[in-house]
Design a protein that fits this description.
With about 475 residues, the chain is an alpha/beta fold. The protein contains 13 helices and 21 strands. Strands 2-1-3-4-5-6 form a six-stranded parallel beta sheet, with helices on both faces. Strands 17-18-19-21-20 form a five-stranded mixed barrel. A three-stranded parallel beta sheet has the order 7-10-13. Helix 2 links the parallel strand 3 and strand 4. The radius of gyration is 24 Å and the shape is globular. The structure holds 5'-deoxyadenosine (5AD) and iron/sulfur cluster (SF4).
Length: about 475
């Protein structure tokens, strides 16, 4: 069990939830590479499987436990063939539940949190020692390694540089949250807000550019709350930089496309709005969750802004960058939400006109203030409201996509599509674009004349000398 030789071992990682988890999963793979692990997308051949979990809604959590049951079966099959599999659970469910995971799923070997995954090599070494001690390779119980601390050291000081080349790369710049929206588990699972120093981020960005990145997305649970330590010796003498200042510096490095997610309306400061006006590389798309259009519900959610303040921010953004496309998250059926409150949300949506939206039924999360409220909304009302809201936002998304038909869009080609010769990329407005192209253009920005709009994507053909006059 757990051979510590440099023989190649297969690692399967399943990622649930947000972009931060996608980023963390990639870093886990980077950490385990020197130990001889290579990624596979087939869990049946995995020597180690990591579930990188999400705790934001109940459904996501339930999925982890049903997936774990299936993994145990896969491991039994591998054991019957003389092989084995280490089962590890990371991410926010692991952070929230800790050893409880092992109580519910005793065959799990390792449980670790979002702030301790840099210690995975030690955990694996511990697991190996424990396995050798018991000398019972077919034991039913897992090895019981749990590390869900919030350590004093930052994991970022211990992560190796990634060597994977990506046209669209991610950098985690900020983590955690101090806002305590009453529905949300993030402040408990990801911990207090933390911003990485500017110098570290610029170094990582340069490295990614050298690997061929054209686009960098700055990630954080509360990314625009970013306030990282300024580089030493800055002439203006500031101690900290906000996100706006960081974006100017990234543009100076020559990053072609810059994005950031996820933002809070309260942290949209002047500097950041100015960056939307002055930095052409900052893409004209912003995910700015509002959650609800009712001031009463916004207050109960502890969002600390009103619908009117949100409109004012959107007005400022639009005057800075008139073509900016907007996206939001919505929660329906928050405790105490009346028909009128829900109507206010629909009215806000009609008013803003979103290019994309994500919407959810309120889900009670243990330990959060809203979970303890008594005026919970019935499931069927939540479902009804969600269907109405989704019909509206889907219409808006299709209308937005239709507006781009007949225009030329610069598209960063990110990956192959399903058909031969087909590629998928992104427009500046975050639309998925499907186009026929040649493989040598992967990772490049090409001009695409858009001729069709679909609910979740647009498609077109590469602009050439023959067809350039058809598109504006
Ligand atoms: N129930 C439903 N949706 C939630 N979100 C966060 N917590 C909950 C919850 N308890 C949604 C919010 C947030 C997004 C990431 O998930 O809309 O912006
Ligand atoms: Fe959760 Fe609110 Fe923090 Fe976003 S701002 S992570 S919704 S507590």
């Amino acid at each position: 069990m757990f051979p510590q030789t440099l023989l190649k071992k297969k690692l399967y990682i399943k990622t649930y939830g947000c972009q931060m988890n996608v980023y963390d999963s990639e870093r886990m793979a980077d950490i385990l590479t020197p130990l001889g692990y290579i990624l596979t997308d087939n869990p049946d051949e995995a020597d180690m499987t990591i579930l990188n979990t999400c705790h934001i809604r109940e459904k996501a959590e339930q999925k982890v436990f049903s997936d774990l049951g299936r993994l145990r079966d896969k491991r039994d099959v591998r054991r019957s063939q003389g092989a084995d599999m280490v089962i590890a659970v990371g991410g926010c469910v692991a952070q929230a539940e800790g050893a409880e995971i092992i109580r519910q799923a005793p065959y799990v070997d390792i449980v670790f949190g979002p702030q301790t995954y840099h210690r995975l090599p030690e955990m694996i070494a511990k697991a190996t020692r424990a396995a050798e001690k018991t000398k019972k390779p077919n034991q039913k119980r897992g090895l019981g390694i749990v590390d869900v601390e919030f350590p004093l050291e930052s994991k970022f000081d211990h992560l190796p540089q990634t060597e994977e080349s990506r046209a669209s790369a991610f950098i985690s710049v900020q983590e955690g949250c101090d806002k305590f929206c009453t529905f949300c588990v993030v402040p408990y699972t990801r911990g207090a807000e933390y911003s990485r120093p500017v110098t570290e981020i610029l170094k990582e960005a340069k490295h990614m550019l050298s690997l061929g990145a054209k686009e960098i997305t700055l990630l954080g649970q509360n990314v625009n709350a970013y306030h990282g330590q300024a580089p030493q010796g800055t002439t203006s003498g500031e101690q900290e930089w906000g996100l706006g200042r960081l974006i100017y510096a990234l543009a100076d490095l020559g990053v072609e496309r810059i994005r950031y997610t996820t933002s809070h309306p309260r942290d949209m400061d002047k500097n950041l709005i100015d960056a939307h006006r002055e930095v052409p590389a900052l893409m004209p798309f912003l995910h700015l969750p509002v959650q609800s259009g009712s001031n009463k519900i916004l207050e109960a959610m502890n969002r600390k802004h009103t619908a009117q303040q949100y409109f004012a921010i959107i007005d400022q953004l639009k005057s800075a960058r008139p073509d900016i496309a907007l996206s939001s998250d919505f929660i329906v059926g928050f405790p105490g939400e009346t028909d009128q409150d829900f109507e206010d949300t629909l009215s806000l949506i009609r008013n803003i006109n979103y290019a994309q939206s994500y919407s959810f039924k309120y889900s009670i999360r243990p330990g959060t203030p809203a979970g303890a409220l008594e005026n919970q909304i019935e499931e069927n009302i939540k479902a009804e409201r969600l269907a109405i809201l989704q019909e509206l936002v889907n219409k808006q998304q299709l209308a937005f996509n239709l507006q781009t038909v007949g225009t030329t869009q610069p598209v960063l080609l990110e990956r192959k599509g399903r058909l031969n010769g087909q590629f998928i990329g992104r427009s500046p407005y975050m639309q998925s674009v499907v186009v026929m192209a040649s493989e040598r253009l992967l990772g490049q920005v090409i001009d695409v004349c858009i001729d069709q709009a679909h609910p979740n994507s647009i498609s077109g053909s590469m602009v050439t000398h023959e067809n350039e006059s058809f598109c504006i």
